[in-house]
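Hi team,

Below is the intake form for Anthranilate synthase component I family protein from Candidatus Frankia alpina. Please confirm the fields before the structure is written into the shared record.

FORM ID: S-0412
PROTEIN: Anthranilate synthase component I family protein
ORGANISM: Candidatus Frankia alpina
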Amino acid sequence: MIGMSRTNVGAPEPIARGSTAVPRSRSPSYLLAGDRLATGVVEISDDPTVLERGGFWAVVVDFEGALRCVRFADVRSVPAAGPAALRRGPWRGPDPRSWTTSLDHAAYVAGAVAIRERIAAGDVYEVNLCRLLSAPLPPAGPGGGPVEPDPAALAAVLAAGNPAPYALALDVPEAGLRIAGASPELFLERDGDVVRSGPIKGTGRTVRDLRDKDVAENIMIVDLVRNDLGRVARTGSVTVPALCAVEHHPGLVHLVSTVRARLRPGMGWPELLAATCPPGSVSGAPKSSALRIIRELEPGPRGPYCGGIGWVDADSGRGWLSVGIRTFWFDADRLWFGTGAAVTWGSDPQGEWRETELKAHRLVGLASN
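The structure came back. Fields below:
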């Protein structure tokens, strides 16, 4: 991923790619993440080495590995009402009846059955099977074209109805990035040489809904994350400070673990991304086998869904990327959203379909008129 070959040992070496300078006066684009507002785009790059060079960057890594980094000139703190202050007007979302899915009920259940067969054959232990929902943006006026995408307006709706620890709004049309996220999951957080990941596995409406299967899934993915971080970490530094902790989010509970490591000397964002992308919690185990099965069963790329989305401050050595779940993005005059579930041998295919509905219901409802 990230344009590099992968091996089982050592740290992959990044391949330098391209950058484009952007005149500041032409760019009204922004990133709002937590209390950080970044404006004034000066550079767009797909080269991971820029994240070690300096500056404040928005970072989006697609599930398939495409990387887009956007450097901003100005960064400042803003109040919690940031999304509402940035929006161009009230949010106008799709008609709730207009959403379509890349995998309907029958296709999704058939995919889950096929994964269980692959597990029985010994090909894989767990696969996260996902589907993409999309709907056309409403018209701007009678007989007119669709409304202009407004990530901040949607982010304001999400912040009010579904607050999330890794909420963000990113609007950089010149890079093809128009995203409103309400992710509860930490993919990577870096502070100097200390790295932390917070994989989520296990979802229910209440704690009583969580099953032994959810605990087993979480432990399996924790082992995968430990292995990924171990490729770039100092020997003996990978630890698990929290295992299967219960976190409450609007309408849902999750099992969340924490994996921590210290990077080896010479390891930075390029090597860290190469070792860990895509996130293990939304792919499966073993990751290489799960990715192959995902390509076979899902009808198209996931894009920013299930990738990594966030920011890097290369001057301070800090940053975080969320897992791109509970996230909307705009493309081709449509609004997109992804939902999925982990399939294991203990899965009920119908139950996994219902989990995808549970994860989508609240947020798609908020985004729809």
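SUMMARY LINE: The chain has one domain: 19-367.

Thanks, M.
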